[in-house]
């Protein structure tokens, strides 16, 4: 029981990390390798507001999210739209966007180093125990989990129910047909990309309450997020949530019952197995 | 660009505070420093290494420069980022020697980068007084590279120090016999754990839990839950900076009640106290300083004044003290590297950590191994022969 | 007359949609078989199943008696079934000659070096592109790209050639040339399956036709027979007119 | 395979060039030599990378993984085996690893491959540290008498091998198959090319070459630990250099490596605090301004000059 709750809490963290990337890759068709840096930047903001003015990270997200939204919108317009226009095929866009976002990730690491320095940054927030089913868990993890549930739920509702959500899903499924029925694909893709960035930065602010970050840790998170998104199926919110929870549970199981030294190896193994058995991901549509 | 900035600061300091002659080209010495500013070890170097380079150069320049053969020479720093990449470290050291014609070259940062560049320092005959490398092969290294001095000690004494402190607490009756050990699965953590485990067993401790976790683990709560359910009297973690924080926080959340709580790297960082505040009273950690010593206190105050940050209570002062050794040797024998090396071998030096004296293996035999947070200061409680150790106290409940 | 290629109960489902339903037919040696039917009747899908571009859901395909049903495309090509594509696919970074050599090097008969080059030159002559081997494929006219693709297919000396709407999109003059070219292949004794819409071409080229509608075979016989079949007419013109 | 007079001329010229650069240790100082080592090392890595990624368009980020494995082969093996057996051993281990990775991922789309290779170095690093932890092995010391010049010559020899191999592949059926795959994979399959097998075979080249490179460089590092041996930066730099040069020609990566190494030196000297930032910026510049690398640029210039000549 203890393992399951711990695993679910960790899975919630992973969902926060991966959700933004899923929006960016699934909907806007941009494999954003600078995603982890956006996460770290969100964490930096939370850290800075907390140490400078004791602003709660739970409130900081309301500043972080719109700023990240605007920043990612700009990134899309300035850097990625020219690539989308130039690309002759999906594959070409993929290669170009991978290279560009690599470059962007280095640029953001460099900027963060220049602004914040290379030091670790960590602070204590909500680090008291909460008791669930007879066991104690960190309140900050529980808070992050609850936020993850709220964010994922809201995203799912929005994509499933609203008109904007419908159009975004339409371009995810069939960008060319979407264009034919009068959807401004470029604008919606920019929206999805910006939204993804905002979700990622929010996740960063939340997880910084219990993880120690520094300017160069972003790539670790990008990697985890990629694995989760691919496992869950590109462009599918449910898949991402389930893959994140599965990964959290698996890692906790391995750490508790086998050997904590093998958690990352186990996560990787799971990824490979899913790739081999279902290359389109748990919930992905098989492309023909 | 960076060089000029430092020169300007130095010149400004001279012009305003100290009525010495302004630095002219032939009166300056070029000081080369290579260490990570990016990459995995940048976080540690930003705390322990770079601020000391800045502090040392400013301090020397502020007192009128280095006295070389009777002439006052100002210092000018050339900094290179090796990106935590040994190949870059090697290249940068060679560049310092051959292109920049640096007069003084400081040692790099971390065990791996120091050892990777040791052959280069050796080939140029440059004294290399390492301050951030730990190795148990000091004798072999000094045989192959007689210019290399090791000041931070080896994994063996550091791990044994932890055993010794816990043994003392047990023998005083403060803690029981059960100890839980975890370590980060990375070179230094593994080395420490491998020394400590048999040593704890030999000392009569019962190992109720032992485990490792990968570097970069995002969730250490399973580890801490397992520790807690093993119900130890003492907890020892040979950990790295991110996990030192995570383990401490998890221990507080799980309310792990032990009489001795030990975490390794970063326990001595000011940011550790900054994050956990008073709750870490009694926490043990790797390193330590003679915190009550006047020399250290002056150093700490200067460090904060010049760099804007407090020094850590382990490597910072050690790094600075090796700069002082170099400084004193140069003032004694001039810029002749071979003479400097001989001078370092032959003499003892008075530094911010007290007396520093290398043995026949170029090894500093007396260094701090364990420190403890007491009244908001991380004080040395165990060492291999340093003065000023305070008594270790049993840890109370988390606050 | 022995069957070179035979299909038995070949079925392809895309989720709930049955694109090809229990197709049965044989192709004999030296025969030109026309596979015809209205748009969306499953002709191209059938071709894709034979060439291995799509996996078969159920049923069996055999080449000279040995099953090729589950083989990947490259093995089917190696065993001697070569195809053209509905939308011409050339290798853009290569010269015309190299495009044709691709077939000669990796096809049913595998050659290398000067031999492969010689075969490719011969094939270019056969399709009427002699002396243009050095050109970049981007410089070609539409019909010439089709010729290059055909030459690539022939260069591997396949046992069965699949032509997927090879005559589509040609202007009347080009169409005449195209029909003449295929007739020449037929006269050489090649075994060909032709998916085609151009009725005149079907009449003049095909020995036999298989007609498909909604994924199912509805008629089989000589062109004259099937085109007179009321069910075929209904399939082409729709139920209302029948 | 017969060689034409042009081939003989090119081979002779290459051999002369090789002989000339082999004299570098006597011509320049230590610093110059260390730049030489850097250039040859990245030439080897980037050229072998481009041999695979050029025709297949799969972006491999596994260089660091193979390189790290190679350093460990030397680090662990040097206590038990003579040094000269270690390099081929590293090559074999790298090739086996590459075959496994290829079998698992090369049948899938390029994105999966990128992600997989991005994580591979991290994964192997975790497994090695876990192994060290379980076995109680410590950080590894490689104390040898091998000098920088030895390392330089070994790398040069490897570079010559890589070029010969690349040249031979270019003239072989495999090379031809790969060009077809690069143009249109579906055509390749329907022409009878076993595309997955061809890709896996080719992937063995960067895998084993990077492992051998790591094995050669291990003595230079003296002390080997996972975080240094498996640094992901290496993979990224190899990609940038190869793309800067262009992957369309065998010599493409070389014309990327040389200017990039000097540019990088320049950046490290003038703005040591912003290397990461500038690395990122150079990445962006390459993607936006030189999408086909210097090779593409030369091609465009030559075409323009050619067309002017006609007019």
TrEMBL record, chain A:
Transmembrane annotation, as ranges: 6-23, 30-50, 56-79, 99-118, 138-159, 189-213, 225-247, 253-277
Entry membrane topology: Multi-pass membrane protein
Subcellular location as annotated: Cell membrane
Keyword Glycosyltransferase: no
Keyword Lyase: no
Keywords attached to this entry: Amino-acid transport, Cell membrane, Membrane, Transmembrane, Transmembrane helix, Transport
Entry-linked PANTHER family: AMINO ACID ABC TRANSPORTER PERMEASE PROTEIN, BRANCHED-CHAIN AMINO ACID TRANSPORT SYSTEM PERMEASE PROTEIN LIVH
Family designation: Belongs to the binding-protein-dependent transport system permease family. LivHM subfamily.
Protein's UniProt name: Branched-chain amino acid ABC transporter permease
Species of origin: Sinisalibacter lacisalsi
Organismal lineage: Bacteria, Pseudomonadati, Pseudomonadota, Alphaproteobacteria, Rhodobacterales
UniProtKB/TrEMBL annotation, chain B:
Signal peptide segment: 1-25
Protein keywords: Amino-acid transport, Signal, Transport
One Pfam family it belongs to: Peripla_BP_6
Family matches, as CDD domains: PBP1_ABC_ligand_binding-like (cd06338)
Gene3D superfamilies: 3.40.50.2300
InterPro entries documented for this protein: BCAA_transport (IPR051010), Leu-bd (IPR028081), Leu_Ile_Val-bd (IPR000709), Peripla_BP_I (IPR028082)
Coiled-coil intervals, chain numbering: none
Residue span(s) of domain Leucine-binding protein: 28-366
Family according to the record: Belongs to the leucine-binding protein family.
Identification of the protein by name: Twin-arginine translocation pathway signal protein
From TrEMBL, chain C:
Segments forming domain ABC transporter: 5-239
Keywords from the UniProt entry: ATP-binding, Nucleotide-binding, Transport
Domain of life (superkingdom): Bacteria
InterPro entries documented for this protein: AAA+_ATPase, ABC_AA/LPS_Transport, ABC_transporter-like_ATP-bd, BCA_ABC_TP_C, P-loop_NTPase
Entry keyword Membrane: no
Keyword rRNA-binding: no
Single Gene Ontology MF annotation: ATP binding
Pfam families named among the record's database cross-references: ABC_tran, BCA_ABC_TP_C
Protein name: ABC transporter ATP-binding protein
Organism the protein comes from: Sinisalibacter lacisalsi
UniProtKB/TrEMBL annotation, chain D:
Protein's UniProt keywords contain Membrane: yes
Subcellular localization, as worded in the UniProt entry: Cell membrane
InterPro entries xrefs: ABC_transp_permease, LivM-like
Keywords in alphabetical order: Cell membrane, Membrane, Transmembrane, Transmembrane helix
Pfam family of the protein (one): BPD_transp_2
Transmembrane segments: 59-78, 84-104, 111-131, 151-170, 200-221, 251-271, 277-301
Bilayer topology term: Multi-pass membrane protein
Name assigned to this protein: Branched-chain amino acid ABC transporter permease
Superkingdom of source: Bacteria
């Amino acid at each position: 029981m203890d393992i399951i709750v711990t695993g679910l809490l960790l899975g919630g963290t992973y969902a926060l990390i991966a959700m933004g990337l899923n929006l960016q890759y699934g909907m806007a068709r941009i494999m954003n390798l600078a995603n982890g840096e956006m996460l770290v930047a969100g964490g930096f903001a939370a850290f800075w507001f907390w140490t400078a003015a004791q602003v709660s990270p739970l409130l900081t997200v309301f500043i972080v999210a719109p700023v990240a939204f605007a920043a990612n919108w700009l990134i899309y317009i300035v850097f990625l739209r020219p690539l989308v226009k130039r690309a002759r095929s999906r594959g070409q866009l993929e290669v170009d966007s991978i290279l560009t976002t690599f470059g962007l990730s280095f640029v953001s690491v460099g900027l963060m180093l220049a602004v914040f320095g290379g030091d670790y940054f960590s602070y204590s927030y909500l680090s008291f125990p909460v008791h669930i089913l007879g066991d104690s868990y960190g309140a900050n993890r529980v808070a992050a989990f609850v936020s993850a549930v709220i964010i994922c739920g809201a995203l799912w509702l929005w994509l499933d129910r609203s008109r904007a959500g419908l159009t975004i899903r339409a371009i995810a499924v069939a960008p060319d047909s979407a264009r034919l029925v009068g959807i401004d694909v470029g604008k919606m893709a920019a929206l999805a990309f910006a939204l993804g960035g905002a979700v990622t930065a929010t996740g960063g602010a939340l997880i910084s309450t219990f993880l120690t970050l520094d300017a160069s840790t972003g790539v670790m998170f990008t990697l985890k997020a990629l694995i989760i998104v691919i496992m869950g199926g590109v462009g599918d919110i449910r898949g991402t949530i389930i893959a994140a929870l599965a990964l959290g549970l698996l890692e906790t199981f391995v750490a508790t019952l086998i050997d904590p030294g093998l958690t990352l190896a186990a996560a990787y193994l799971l990824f490979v197995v899913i790739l081999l058995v279902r290359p389109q991901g748990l919930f992905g549509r098989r492309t023909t | 660009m960076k060089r000029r900035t430092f020169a300007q600061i130095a010149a400004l300091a001279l012009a305003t505070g100290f009525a010495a002659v302004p630095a002219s080209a032939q009166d300056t010495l070029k000081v080369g420093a290579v260490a990570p500013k990016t990459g995995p070890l940048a976080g540690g170097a930003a705390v322990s290494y770079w601020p000391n380079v800045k502090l040392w150069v400013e301090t020397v320049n502020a007192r009128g420069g280095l006295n070389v053969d009777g002439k006052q020479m100002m210092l000018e720093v050339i900094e290179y980022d090796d990106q935590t990449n040994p190949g870059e470290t090697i290249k940068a050291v060679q560049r310092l020697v051959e292109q920049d014609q640096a007069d003084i070259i400081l040692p790099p940062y971390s065990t791996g980068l120091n050892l990777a560049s040791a052959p280069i320092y050796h080939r140029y005959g440059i004294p290399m007084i390492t301050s951030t490398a730990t190795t148990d092969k000091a004798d072999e290294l000094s045989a192959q590279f007689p210019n290399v001095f090791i000041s931070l000690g080896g994994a063996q004494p550091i791990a044994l120090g932890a055993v010794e402190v816990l043994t003392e607490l047990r023998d005083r009756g403060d803690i029981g016999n059960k100890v839980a050990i975890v370590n980060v699965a990375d070179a230094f953590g593994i080395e420490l754990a491998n020394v400590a485990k048999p040593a704890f067993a030999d000392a009569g401790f019962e190992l109720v839990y032992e485990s490792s976790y990968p570097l970069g683990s995002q969730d250490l709560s399973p580890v801490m839950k397992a520790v807690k359910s093993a119900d130890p009297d003492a907890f020892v973690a040979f950990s790295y900076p991110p996990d030192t924080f995570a383990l401490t926080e998890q221990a507080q959340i799980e309310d792990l009640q032990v009489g001795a709580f030990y975490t390794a790297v970063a326990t001595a960082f000011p940011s550790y106290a900054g994050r956990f505040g008073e709750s870490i009273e009694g926490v043990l950690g790797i390193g330590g300083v003679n915190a009550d010593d006047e020399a250290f206190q002056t150093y700490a105050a200067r460090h904060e004044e010049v760099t804007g940050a407090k020094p850590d209570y382990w490597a910072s002062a050690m790094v600075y003290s090796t700069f002082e050794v170099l400084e004193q040797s140069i003032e004694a024998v001039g810029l002749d590297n071979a003479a400097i090396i001989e001078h370092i071998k032959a003499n003892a030096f008075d530094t911010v950590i007290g007396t520093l004296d290398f043995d026949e293996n170029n090894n500093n035999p007396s260094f701090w191994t364990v420190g403890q947070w007491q009244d908001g200061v991380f004080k040395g409680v165990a060492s291999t022969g340093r003065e000023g150790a305070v008594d270790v106290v049993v840890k109370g409940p988390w606050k | 007359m022995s069957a070179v290629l035979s299909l038995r109960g070949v079925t392809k489902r895309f989720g709930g949609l049955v694109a090809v339903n229990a197709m049965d037919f044989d192709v004999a040696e030296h025969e030109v078989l026309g596979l015809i039917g209205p748009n969306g009747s499953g002709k191209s899908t059938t071709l894709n199943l034979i060439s291995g571009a799509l996996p078969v859901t159920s049923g069996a395909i055999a080449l000279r008696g040995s099953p090729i049903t589950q083989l990947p495309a490259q093995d089917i090509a190696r065993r001697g079934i070569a195809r053209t594509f509905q939308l011409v696919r050339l290798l853009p970074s290569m010269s015309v000659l190299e495009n044709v050599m691709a077939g000669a090097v990796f096809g049913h008969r595998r050659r290398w070096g000067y031999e492969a080059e010689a075969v490719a030159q011969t094939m270019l002559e056969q399709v009427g592109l002699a002396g243009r081997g050095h050109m970049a494929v981007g410089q070609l006219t539409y019909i010439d790209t089709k010729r290059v693709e055909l030459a690539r297919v022939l260069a591997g000396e396949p046992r069965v050639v699949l032509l997927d709407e090879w005559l589509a999109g040609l202007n009347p003059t080009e169409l005449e040339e195209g029909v003449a070219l295929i007739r020449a292949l037929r006269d050489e004794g090649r075994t060909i399956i032709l998916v085609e819409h151009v009725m005149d071409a079907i009449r003049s080229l095909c020995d036999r036709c298989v007609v498909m509608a909604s994924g199912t075979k509805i008629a089989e016989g000589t062109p004259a027979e099937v085109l007179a079949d009321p069910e075929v007419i209904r399939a082409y013109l729709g139920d209302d007119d029948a | 395979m017969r060689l034409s007079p042009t081939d003989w001329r090119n081979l002779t010229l290459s051999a002369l060039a090789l002989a000339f650069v082999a004299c570098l240790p006597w011509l320049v100082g230590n610093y110059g030599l260390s730049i030489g080592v850097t250039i040859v090392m990245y030439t080897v890595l980037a050229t072998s990378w481009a041999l695979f990624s050029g025709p297949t368009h799969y972006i491999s980020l596994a260089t660091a993984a193979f390189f790290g494995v190679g350093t460990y082969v030397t680090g662990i093996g040097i206590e038990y085996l003579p040094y000269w057996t270690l390099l081929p051993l590293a090559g074999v281990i790298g090739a086996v690893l590459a075959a496994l990775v290829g079998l698992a991922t090369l049948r899938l789309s390029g994105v999966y491959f990128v992600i997989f290779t991005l994580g591979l170095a991290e994964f192997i690093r975790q497994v090695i540290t876990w192994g060290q932890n379980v076995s109680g092995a410590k950080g590894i010391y490689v104390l040898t008498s091998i000098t920088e010049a030895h390392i330089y010559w070994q790398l040069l020899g490897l570079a010559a091998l890589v070029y010969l191999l690349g040249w031979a592949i270019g003239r072989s059926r495999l090379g031809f198959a790969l060009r077809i795959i690069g143009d249109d994979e579906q055509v390749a399959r329907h022409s009878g090319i076993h595309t997955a097998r061809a890709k896996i075979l080719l992937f063995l080249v960067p895998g084993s070459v990077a492992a051998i490179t790591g094995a050669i460089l291990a003595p230079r590092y003296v002390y080997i630990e996972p975080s240094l041996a498996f640094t992901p930066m290496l993979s990224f730099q190899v990609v940038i250099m190869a793309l800067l040069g262009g992957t369309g020609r065998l010599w493409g990566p070389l014309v990327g490596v040389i200017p990039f190494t000097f540019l990088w030196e320049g950046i490290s000297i003038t703005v040591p605090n912003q290397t990461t930032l500038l690395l990122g910026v150079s990445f962006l510049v390459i993607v936006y301004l030189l999408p086909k690398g210097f090779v593409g640029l030369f091609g465009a210039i030559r075409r323009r000059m050619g067309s002017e000549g006609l007019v």
